[in-house]
């Protein structure tokens, strides 16, 4: 991702902005549940308003801008990934299931062999 070696020191003003952004998110969630008797649009509006206010507050702080820059860079890196096709994903899944089945049978067989050796041959309990 990014190899930034510059360390930023956040001021108390930035800390206040981040704390108020978190409070705005909490207020939006509380408003969503507090307005349980209202329509879904009003409840969703309260939640969305809290989130938008929080994003606005976070955008004005240094940690918020660096986080949003990190998020943009993460999305950019995700777009570079070559995702498997549906057919390839199905084939890989089938191979994993087959391997798990083979390993389960092997471990079951090893367990039964050790059981026979321990109880029948060595201890003579069965």
Short descriptors:
126 residues; mainly alpha; 2 domains; 4 helices
Question: Could you please describe the fold and organization of this structure?
Answer:
With 126 residues, the protein is mostly helical. The chain has 2 domains: 12-79; 84-126. It has helices at 12-34, 40-59, 62-79, 86-123. The radius of gyration is 28 Å and the shape is elongated. The chain starts with 11 loop residues before the first helix and ends with a helix. The mean pLDDT is 88.
Major sheet size, sense and barrel closure = none
Shape: elongated
How many domains make up the 3D coordinates?
2
Radius of gyration: 28 Å
Low-confidence stretches are none
How much helicity do the residues have? over 70%
Please count the helical segments: 4
* Beta strand count: 0
H/E series, N to C? Answer: HHHH
Distance between the termini: 62 Å
Strand content: under 5%
Category by helix and strand content: mainly alpha
Mean pLDDT across the residues is: 88
Short description:
The chain is mainly α and 126 residues long. Helix content is 79%, strand content 0%. Helix 1 (12-34) runs antiparallel to helix 2 and helix 2 (40-59) packs across helix 3 (62-79).
Reconstruct the topology from this structure.
Layout: H1 12-34, H2 40-59, H3 62-79, H4 86-123
